[in-house]
Amino acid sequence: MSRAVATGILVVALALGGCRGKDDPYGAEPACPLLADLVKTGQTVARADVSDPAAFDATLRDATKDYVATASKLRDEVPANLKGDVERMITAAEQRRFDDARTARSRIDEYARANCTLTGASG
User: Please, are residues 52 and 99 in contact by the beta-carbon 8 Å criterion?
Assistant: First the structure.
């Protein structure tokens, strides 16, 4: 796997941002903890050792599996108008089409910004 692929999954996760709220560590919306988990998954890939292709591929494979599992839970927590976007994001991530996943999640990003207090998860 290339550094570009790692960057792709990382960008998908980090753009969603981590959620923080006053009374709840992730925000009031049930989707916020899941969005934070997606960030953590992306950070795992960002820390992966790209100099060891086998280890990197294993990290990316495991992170993609975790990302899809978390996004599947997210699908149940977002409003009905975003469920299709989450489904497209899942399908793209499963196929390692991370640019497509990033495109599919644009309205999810808007939802996260409106409903969760985003932290500075930019790198």
Answer: no
Q: Is the Cβ–Cβ distance between 98 and 5 less than 8 Å?
A: yes
**What amino acid occupies position 100?**
D
Could you count the other beta carbons within 10 Å of the beta carbon of residue 23? 6
Taking only the tens place, the pLDDT of each residue in 62-83 is 999 999 999 999 999 999 999 9
Residue-range domain boundaries for the chain: 3-116
Between strands 117-118 and 19-20, the pairing is antiparallel
Helix axes 53-77, 3-16, angle to 10 degrees: 30
Q: What is the pTM of this model?
A: 0.73
